[in-house]
Amino acid sequence: MRYFLELSYSGKAYNGWQIQNNAPSVQQTLQEALSTILRVPTGVVGAGRTDTGVHAARYVAHFDAECPLEEPQRFCYHLNAILPWDIAVQDVRRVRDDAHARFDAVEREYKYYVSPRKDPFRRDVAYQLIMPLDLDRMNEAAETLLGRQDFTSFSKLHSGNKTNICRVTRAQWREQDGCYVFTVAADRFLRNMVRAIVGTLLDVGRGKLSVEGFRAVIDGRDRALAGTSAPPQGLFLTRVDYPDDVYVKQH
Amino acid sequence: MRYFLELSYSGKAYNGWQIQNNAPSVQQTLQEALSTILRVPTGVVGAGRTDTGVHAARYVAHFDAECPLEEPQRFCYHLNAILPWDIAVQDVRRVRDDAHARFDAVEREYKYYVSPRKDPFRRDVAYQLIMPLDLDRMNEAAETLLGRQDFTSFSKLHSGNKTNICRVTRAQWREQDGCYVFTVAADRFLRNMVRAIVGTLLDVGRGKLSVEGFRAVIDGRDRALAGTSAPPQGLFLTRVDYPDDVYVKQH
């Protein structure tokens, strides 16, 4: 029987979600803890890659268990006791046997945090950019991201994707607790896409690029046109959505 | 001429505010940075001690400069560039020549953060206590802290204080962003006082101590009666207030 695990992690100590040789990954760490709890080697499949140093406030991964799990809260408590401090499990939910954490996801959301001042408590969770930013212009540019478009300009070269088309449903900056927060939601994201978008929007915010210039970057479909990627510590995966029918009702 | 410096710091890497032999302190680190900027050995006097590992969201220290400082925002920018990431200066304000960061403070406020769940993003800024807590009873007990009282039960032994009387003006728990936050304000605090109070209130919250039992701890005036001190990483100094007339108007 298959389960979805809802978790959060600080990406600081990991070379991203995905298992790699000779580098710590969230996937590997989670597999080892699950295998210990379930007493059988257990693989996990994640909702998608996150890059080195990128955080997840809400991530979803699926795994298979031979027997039904104990009560979810107890299971999470035990799993959290084995996992290191920087990975925390919030919930485990029974899903259909063919449910897939990556392929069934219908929407994902990221948030990017920029701190406009030096802040000892946000060093690992925001990009500290001590510089005046024009949020209105950044939002004007961000609006042009909405809809179904080709985002080749914000992708990694040679990613091997069949298409670079994504449907962006939200793209907006706002102020929150003294930070500038960019929220972006889409049906899918290309590798490095959010950080490339944020880096280019920050160029708009500091007057290096006009709103029209930003639009031309998208239309150019050329990675060389975009700005420098914003650093990873400001980026959080914050939501992964699935259709209701992937979940199996439990009593 | 004398200045008040407003700063914040993460206490994680420091053995508290106060200079010590062979141990890093915020005071020492700040003095070195100021001495570099002002090009003359410069001492700073803080609003009070903070213990090893305790944070400050707003701390005030005074220092003397031989010449008037450059524009405050520029001065802070340069000072922040020299200071390590875990100490940040927000403002510098000219004060009367006899103003004193410690003796002129009329009220101080602390906040203590308890996270009732494992949270990878709050490891260094909250006490993670995975346990049901009765916030109503904790607030009932906290209310008995209000007023002018002898707090010997929540002091360190042999502190050398002439009196252990403090006037507590606020003592209240509330929920905020998934954390339990205790806010306490007083004219003065004894060493270790807030963490001893929080540790004892947590005993009330988990049913180990009654509200009447908590009141008896205060009345007993005996450090042995209080609960274990709560750990330092949850504690923040959040406010230090001065009378308006310590500040000198600048043009």
Automatic annotation (TrEMBL), chains A, B:
Gene Ontology biological process terms in this record: tRNA pseudouridine synthesis
UniProt xrefs under CDD domains: PseudoU_synth_EcTruA
Residues of the active site: D51
The EC number(s) this enzyme carries: 5.4.99.12
Residue intervals of the Pseudouridine synthase I TruA alpha/beta domain: 9-104, 141-243
First-level EC class: isomerase
Molecular function as annotated in GO: RNA binding; tRNA pseudouridine(38-40) synthase activity
Protein residues bound to substrate: Y110
Family: Belongs to the tRNA pseudouridine synthase TruA family.
HAMAP family: TruA
Function: Formation of pseudouridine at positions 38, 39 and 40 in the anticodon stem and loop of transfer RNAs.
Subunit and interaction comment: Homodimer.
Protein name: tRNA pseudouridine synthase A
